[in-house]
Amino acid sequence: MAILFGAVADDDTGATDLAGMLADQGVRAVLVIDLPGPGQLAAWAEHCDAVILGVGSRALAPAAAYDRVRDGVRLLETLHPGVVQVKYCSTFDSTAEGNIGPSIEAALDELGEAFTIALPALPVNGRTTYMGYHFVHQQLLSDSPMRHHPLTPMTNPNLVAHLQSQTRRKVGLAPYPEVRAGAQRLRDCFYQLRDSGVNMAIVDCTTGADLEVICEAARGLGLITGSSAPAMMLPGIWEREGCWKPVDRASLLPRRAAPGRGFLVVAGSCSQATQRQNQVLAARGARIVDLDGVQLAGGEGGSAPIISAATAEMAAGRACLLRTAGGLDDVDRVHQWARRNGLTETEVGCRIAFRLAGIVREIVQCSPPEGLIIAGGETSGAVCRTLHFGALRVGANIEPGVPLCVSLGNVSLPVVLKSGNFGGPDFYDQAMAAVRGLRNV
């Protein structure tokens, strides 16, 4: 079989972000958790145009990220994709040691490519790049709330310098004037950069019009890297070239009987957007269960009261929110505990995410919800793996970058994986309405 598009994504919310952008254009997409065998991958990919692997590389050490991404690209090659993407966050989230550079290196090596572009911009969500400097809603990346991220604080907005610090290969810039000059001029710029020894080129992008030019110029590259932005433009190119036809977005996910009652919302993110969404859901009357990050990290406290509270609310057809952080003070307290116990911030973050995922599994086993909504990349990854979702069929976006999905593995239910920074204040209400829309009538 051959697919149009394959991608490896550094976390599961990034994978759904990319898959949702494709689905919005009528592309049949599946998100596969981790790295299954080729036979299982082919079964999940059947009748799909695009396959995205959530390889969970963001918090890995550079060498481990390289190996994971290379394994993922090698697996995708069994499906003969027309183009491969290395997907990372539109805020260029990366550890201090640097995982994006090694991830791009892995794809270049596996595919035998000498050049690729790096396009982290996502204008529809306020992420733009100008002369190599990255902005979030018109703030420099280093001035945005991303500077406070508990695992991947972003303090350098100069993406050329930042990426160069993570790779032994040469990094260059395709600057804004070249983008504004049109697709042919930009394509020539790519060739010139490649011929001068550049292997990875940050591409400036400030608007949707810029994005269209970039995707036209990049047509023919075997490898691209960056945010979910290309997924907004590539399908139009495929259709124009006669190699693909869109399907009705309403047909991407089948109507289904509700597998359970109520909604379970799990918020492991401390982003300002998620905190605001939590507040709005609380004001709507949802049951809120606050979980202490230090107790989760240390394995303290029993889960029985949490499970009882959640299942009672869901059985009554209501929503229950489990949340782990109220703000930066909570994050600081967890980090202080980690240092006292000889753990890194990444290690303690993983402990919390998987302990929370274990609680979610117990709740779902006791009382399956009508829908499961998860906020935060690390939390989403832990829940998907703990519940053995295997793969997710991807539907249209609820908001840009956040689609409705249905799990295909051991547990089958509607799932929404939300990056912490995505979504408006009433996102949870929108997500629950989207899940209800799948009910058989």
Task: Give the secondary structure arrangement, pairings included.
Elements: E1 5-9, H1 12-24, E2 29-33, H2 38-45, E3 50-54, H3 62-77, E4 83-87, H4 100-111, E5 116-119, E6 127-130, E7 133-136, E8 139-140, H5 159-164, E9 171-174, H6 176-180, H7 183-195, E10 200-203, H8 208-218, E11 223-226, H9 230-240, E12 263-267, H10 272-283, E13 287-290, H11 293-298, H12 304-315, E14 319-323, H13 328-340, H14 345-366, E15 371-375, H15 377-386, E16 391-399, E17 402-407, E18 414-418, H16 427-436
Parallel strand pairs: 1-3, 1-4, 2-3, 4-11, 5-10, 5-11, 9-10, 12-14, 12-15, 13-14, 15-18
Antiparallel strand pairs: 2-16, 6-7, 7-8, 16-17, 17-18
Helix pairs in contact: 3-4, 7-8, 8-9, 12-14, 14-15
Give keywords.
441 residues; alpha/beta; 15-stranded mixed beta sheet; three-stranded antiparallel beta sheet; 18 strands; 41% helix
Structure description:
This protein has 441 residues and is an alpha/beta fold. It is built from 16 helices and 18 strands. The chain has helices at 12-24, 38-45, 62-77, 100-111, 159-164, 176-180, 183-195, 208-218, 230-240, 272-283, 293-298, 304-315, 328-340, 345-366, 377-386, 427-436; strands spanning 5-9, 29-33, 50-54, 83-87, 116-119, 127-130, 133-136, 139-140, 171-174, 200-203, 223-226, 263-267, 287-290, 319-323, 371-375, 391-399, 402-407, 414-418. It has a 15-stranded mixed beta sheet with strand order 9-10-5-11-4-1-3-2-16-17-18-15-12-14-13, sandwiched between helices. A three-stranded antiparallel beta sheet has the order 6-7-8, with no helix packed on it. A hairpin with a 2-residue loop joins β16 and β17. α3 (62-77) packs parallel to α4 (100-111), α7 (183-195) packs across α8 and α14 packs across α15. The mean pLDDT is 92.
